[in-house]
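Hello,

Our lab assistant flagged a job as stuck in the queue for most of the afternoon. It eventually completed. Since we weren't sure the result was trustworthy after the delay, we are filing this so someone can double-check. Below is the sequence as submitted and the structure that was eventually returned. Let us know if re-running is recommended.
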Amino acid sequence: MPTPTNAYAATAPDAPMAPFSFERRDPQASDVAIDILYCGVCHSDLHTAKGEWEGTLYPCVPGHEIVGRVVAVGDAVTRFKVGDIAGVGCMVGSCGHCPSCDDGEEQYCETTGFVGTYNGPDTVMGGHTFGGYSDHIVVDEGFVLKVTHDEGDLAAVAPLLCAGITTYSPLRHWKVGPGQKVGIVGLGGLGHMGVKIAAAMGAEVYVFSTSPGKRDDAIRLGAKDLIVSKDADAMATHANSFDFILNTVAAAHDLDQFLALLKRDGTMTLVGVPETPHPSPSVGNLVFRRRALAGSLIGGIAETQEMLDFCKEHGLTSDIEMIAIQDIETAYDRMVKSDVKYRFVIDMQSLKAA
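-- returned structure --
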């Protein structure tokens, strides 16, 4: 029998998040059933719930930074057992046979696209998928991650399932490591993890921000210094010196000011998706130093597991503020104002009171 599941959902773009009930499938042969302990709050949750991105399916239960305890497994499951701590990130499925899926890059699935943890097609129950603002989830074993951090750190592990992998994947792909000078544009939910991970990889890390008051935090997180991006003189002193820049800002802005800081053959990778396009960068900034402008989307399941293991080895978690599910609208309002250091995480025990 399907399992009754309690959640918080938006029923329309202008409707506040509110209690909602639905049914999860019983675990099939390759499924893992998880009671959710913590769920991070991503800006994507807000954009989707409020209908700010096209294609939101209502009712919408957001949440793709999930950590919980395994309570049941299907007969064919081999990597998990009841009682394990497990994670679920942004994907719960893909075609499994296209070139990208064959390469373990399911986020770039070329046949159907990856199946989102919420607002994606539910091929078993019909309708669309419901995410982690809920007390229970059932996911194919191939899209479940092992979490080995100490139980006292689990709430702070949850944002690694999106913010962690979104920054780890490009840093890993472009081979960031010792001897390299790396810039992180923006010090928010993504940026603060980018600083931690790049520093743990051995790079010399600088943060670019419009807020000089964030310097102490940037250094605490592992940066050598913060460069105020609206200070032209400060920016000029770093011209042609960066091996790699990870740009986490999700608002349209001038990319040329950062491209000019790259060495010959340097790369700037974008992971934020603005609501309106960036101004087109100068071709000369690319051509005359053989610089590259690239993009990156989360990471595959194998790489996400690698990221979790890397973070455990280096003692990395997200800086979080714990909230009750009843406070999600307040959290959304504060996110819009960048009033969080650096990720909200929902204690799903609070759902019982709702």
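-- support follow-up --
The delay was a queue issue, not a problem with the job. The result is valid. The CA atoms of residues 5 and 40 lie 19 Å apart. The chain has two domains: 3-162+299-353, 164-295.
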